[in-house]
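Consider the tokenized backbone below.
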């Protein structure tokens, strides 16, 4: 925790070094090839049918594939479907708005802000607004002809549909690959956690397990299809539930001070991860669970829980098992994101304002292909924090300047037909390879790709020197406006909202705990409210950590508090799954509510609370301990 806290502030001299660093993530070869295929195949088909321009328009729909990530296919299918619809809509909108520069500027800001808000509110990974704005901008740069709006939109839809099909091919061979991968990581981390009992690594390992369990729960919820029941998915869900029970049992009965657990426990759990890789469960060899010669009752009970989890791997009747997955409704998620203290809503408004301003400036200067100014602004402002925005500006600047030179040479050669198809395939392929390494390296190849498609559809003719200089000026103006806009509008906007949201989240946890341990009916609404608040709080803190100048005092104060809030939220969610919970007396519940209200007030005022007594919660000592830890966290740095 301390190491992360030290890495929070970003010093200006290190920003350039961070922006130019190349991470060690592996190259996504398959995804890169599929992305190239999704962009180039529509152009190839159009060329074969004698309608090259139509192929280029359909190729714009190929940008849909760039929103593919390693998430459940059910979630990918829904997300890409709406991306296709979005691309189709903005292409028609761009065609209609092309004759009206002011309307184009306003619409560009609204489109970008809408995408930023939706992706942020739903916590969807991906390039967010940039490709929606790009498609809209490219259609406004085509020959003005509103009558062609249905044709252009239809072709973009067809290209997007092809991308959807390419993205879903993996479902045929491994329909639950992402879900299996995350459950496997759960048991890998759980085995490491068992080994950490009685060592200094206990707390750190505990935090890793909580994090991956939350990720697994979210992944399984995203992959759940109510009308389609499969044996594999149901088994993965039950295995994850067993992992939660094992983890909670260890928390309740063992600790950092406890003697180390028998090595056979960790070995058995690791053996389960290898079984998850085997698709045919009927052929699994049922190995005897390793057990030490001597063990106490608590360790024996832990082995029973592990045995139950292992037995799940061999049962073949999971397809008809009834499972219930609860997740916040879209209405609740968007309702929370529309809150005035939501950083998602604030970011969307900021984005809209700056993009509209950039588009109007570009129009007033009468720049050729003026949409490259706001487009560069969009790329820069896509950073999640001000620091990452500065990184994007540096990467975009260097990458685009080199990319424009490459594009200038390519366009000077006047490529046509199959050469353009090959170039689109190669440039998209290389872009997706390097996007995981460094955004600047990806921009180096994405820029000539976008320029090649845009200029091929706009039917414009420029000299080499004019084209290169014009695009460079556009990009530099867009980067400058984006940086100035973020600096003026976004300074301290996240850190100033932390006190209110921390207070709101603590109160929601107190209300949820009241429902859990009283005789009142729990309708899940309080749990969903708490989950939404925690998600917003983590996003807000991450944004505050990337501000310039950074509010170091606020970050140091709230980091242990938010850390404890997240752990308490996890424990309360798991408690809600237990059917038999103790019912506390009115006096005990009143004391707990008093503790939470005291914490909420002191968090908002950044004061040091006195430690209040937390009533005993039988069978849930981990919740009681975490509440005590949260009180102590609020005393840190006071």
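A designed sequence for it:
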């Amino acid at each position: 925790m301390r190491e992360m806290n030290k890495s929070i502030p970003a010093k200006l001299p290190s920003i350039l070094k961070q922006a130019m660093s190349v991470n060690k993530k592996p190259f996504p070869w398959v995804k890169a090839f599929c992305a190239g295929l999704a962009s180039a195949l529509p152009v190839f088909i159009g060329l074969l049918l004698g309608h090259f321009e139509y192929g280029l328009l359909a190729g714009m729909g190929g940008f849909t594939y760039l929103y593919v990530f390693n998430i459940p296919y059910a979630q990918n299918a829904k997300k890409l479907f709406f991306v296709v619809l979005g691309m189709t809509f903005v292409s028609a909108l761009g065609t209609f708005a092309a004759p009206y520069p002011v309307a184009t500027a306003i619409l560009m800001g609204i489109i970008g802000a809408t995408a930023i808000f939706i992706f942020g509110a739903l916590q969807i990974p991906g390039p967010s607004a940039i490709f929606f704005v790009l498609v809209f901008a490219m259609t406004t740069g085509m020959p003005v002809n509103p009558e062609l709006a249905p044709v252009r939109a239809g072709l973009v839809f067809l290209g997007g549909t092809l991308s959807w099909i390419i993205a879903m091919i993996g479902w045929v061979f491994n329909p639950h690959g992402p879900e299996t991968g995350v459950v496997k990581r759960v048991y890998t981390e759980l085995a490491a956690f068992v080994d950490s009992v009685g060592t200094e690594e206990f707390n750190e390992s505990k935090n890793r397990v909580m994090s991956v369990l939350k990720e697994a729960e979210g992944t399984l919820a995203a992959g759940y299809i109510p009308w389609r029941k499969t044996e594999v998915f149901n088994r993965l869900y039950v295995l994850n539930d067993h992992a939660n029970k094992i983890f909670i049992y260890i928390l309740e009965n063992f600790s950092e001070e406890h003697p180390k657990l028998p090595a056979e426990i960790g070995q058995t759990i690791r053996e389960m991860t290898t079984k998850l890789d085997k698709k045919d469960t009927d052929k699994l060899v049922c190995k005897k669970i390793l057990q030490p010669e001597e063990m106490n009752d608590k360790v024996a009970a832990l082995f029973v829980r592990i045995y139950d989890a292992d037995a799940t791997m061999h049962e073949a009747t999971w397809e008809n098992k009834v499972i219930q997955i609860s997740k916040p409704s879209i209405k609740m998620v968007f309702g929370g994101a529309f809150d005035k203290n939501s950083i998602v809503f604030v970011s969307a408004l900021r984005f809209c304002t700056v993009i509209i301003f950039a588009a109007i400036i570009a129009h007033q200067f009468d720049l050729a292909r003026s949409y490259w100014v706001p487009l560069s602004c969009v790329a820069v402002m896509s950073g999640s924090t001000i620091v990452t925005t500065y990184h994007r500006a540096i990467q975009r600047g260097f990458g685009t300047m080199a990319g424009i030179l490459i594009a200038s040479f390519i366009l000077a050669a006047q490529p046509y037909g199959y050469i353009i198809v090959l170039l689109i395939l190669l440039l998209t392929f290389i872009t997706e390879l390097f996007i995981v390494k460094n955004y600047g390296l990806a921009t180096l190849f994405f820029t000539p790709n976008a320029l090649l498609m845009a200029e091929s559809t706009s039917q414009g003719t420029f000299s080499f020197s004019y084209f290169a200089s014009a695009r460079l000026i556009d990009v530099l103006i867009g980067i400058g406006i984006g940086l100035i806009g973020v600096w003026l509008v976004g300074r301290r906007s996240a850190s100033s909202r932390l006190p209110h949201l921390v207070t709101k989240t603590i109160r929601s946890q107190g209300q949820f705990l009241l429902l859990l341990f009283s005789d009142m009916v729990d309708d899940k609404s309080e749990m969903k409210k708490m989950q939404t608040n925690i998600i917003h709080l983590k996003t807000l803190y991450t944004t505050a950590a990337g501000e310039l100048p950074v509010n170091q005092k606020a970050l140091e104060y709230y980091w242990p508090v938010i850390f404890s809030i997240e752990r308490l939220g996890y424990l309360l969610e798991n408690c809600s799954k237990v059917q038999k919970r103790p019912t506390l007396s009115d006096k005990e519940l009143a004391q707990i509510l008093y503790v939470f209200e005291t914490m909420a007030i002191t968090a908002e005022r950044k004061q040091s609370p006195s430690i209040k007594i937390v009533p005993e919660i039988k069978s849930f000592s981990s919740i009681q301990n975490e509440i005590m830890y949260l009180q102590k966290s609020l005393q840190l740095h006071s």
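The longest helix spans residues 386-412.
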